[in-house]
Each structure stands twice: as structure tokens, then as C-alpha cells.
Amino acid sequence: EVQLVESGGGVVQPGGSLRLSCAASGFTFSDHYMDWVRQAPGKGLEWVGRIRKRGNRYTTEYGASVKGRFTISRDDSKNSLYLQMNSLRTEDTAVYYCARAGYGDGDYWGQGTLVTVSS
Amino acid sequence: DIQMTQSPSSLSASVGDRVTITCRASQGITNYLVWFQQKPGKAPKSLIYVASNLQSGVPSRFSGSGSGTNFTLTISTLQPEDFATYYCLQYNSYPRTFGQGTKVEI
Question: How much is the mean pLDDT over chain B?
Fold first, then answer.
């Protein structure tokens, strides 16, 4: 069974940093591109970014609102995906989901982890 | 960036109704479109990919169609568990972009 489990969310002050993790199981993690998607309270879904697999040199893509502040990485030996978030703003407050790209983007999702940016 | 416009933003329906939700892309995306269902407090669930392929385990009352810029999600006979918010996502190009969502209410 495919499972994605996010962790690392919490409360952080504006300008601060936070690192989210996503632990994957039930599939060959190294074979898949992986995404981060977020959802602000009461709002719609926003794509944060993607990391490709080893064969594509682990290259990344980012949404405009996070580019230059957020970094996506992965450790295939640990079946884990990461999101390093720096220079956090109040508008980054959201539930952050990791999602697998397989049968289309987002064929499996984690349960999400809440990040609150507040002073 | 490609803009995805869903309509309607919300709708009221009854069990047994046929429901149609549309998604329009600001430029052609061939058929690189996914439909998701999201229930309150839960992660989105993929229903349909490449515009018309049903994900494994998704009931056959869900169907998708379209290509280019105009896409449709149809629920043939609405069931109680289908009351949720539905999103489209284009994955033709970066950045990926979602529609704003359609809330299906009783």
C-alpha cells in the first residue's frame, strides 16, 4: 500500500525557517517525481514545487510565490522527501502535502502537515 | 502561467442527480488534466488522469472528457459520499496550476 506521511509542521515566526519531511513507503520511491502542494485555511490548492528523479538529475521546479525561499530535496536511500522553507511569511500559512507523480500528477497524497507563520 | 477556470464555483444537487463540472485552460494543455475530490479535513484524492482515465478503485459513475482547453467531470448518479469539493489540475507545463474548486453541496 502506498503511504506518504508528512511531518515537521508547527508554528514559526515571520522570517523564520522550517523543514518538512515526507516519508514514503509501499512503492519504489526512487522511480517517481515528487511534489509539494499547499492549501491555506479555507482556500484552494496551490502547487509549491517538484523534484525529479535521479535519472533527471534531481532537478527541481518551483511556483513563483516560493521560488528563491523554498528548496525541495530528496534522499532515495531513506525514501524521504524534504521541503526547506526559509524567509517564511504569514501568507505561507497552510497545510502542506507531499504527493507522488505516477498515474498523472498527484496520484497519491499524504495526510498533510500544518505550518503556521505568526508572531 | 496557464490559468485554470472551473465552473460553477459551487452547486446544489440531490442524490441521484447527474452533475457536470467544467474546467477551462487559458491555453491548450492537450489532455494533461487531473480531477481531484477533496472532503473537509482530508487530502485530495485523484479521480481521473489524462482527462479521461479513471484511477484504480474510483467508481465508474465518475467520468472525464475533453482535450485542448475545455474539460468536463461528470458524476452520472450522485451518491451521498460524493458531496465534496472538486479541483482540476493541469500538468502540461510548469508551474502546475489548479482550478479554484467546485463545491458540490446538498
Answer: 97
As a whole number of angstroms, the distance between CA B51 and CA B33 comes to 5
Residue B97: Cβ-neighbour burial (10 angstroms; 0-12, 13-18, 19+) = buried
From chain B, pick out residues whose CB is under 8 angstroms from the CB of A47: 89, 95-98
Query: Which of chain A's residues have a Cβ under 8 Å away from the Cβ of B55?
Result: 103-104, 107
C-alpha–C-alpha distance, residues B25 and B42, integer Å: 26
Which residues in chain B land under pLDDT 50?
Answer: none
Residue B92, chain A, CB below 8 Å: the answer is no
Q: Which residues contact B52 (CB under 8 A, 6 or more apart)?
A: B31, B63, B64, B65, B66
| B91/A105 touch (CB, cutoff 8 Å), yes or no | yes
| Confidence at residue A26, expressed as pLDDT on a 0 to 100 scale | 97
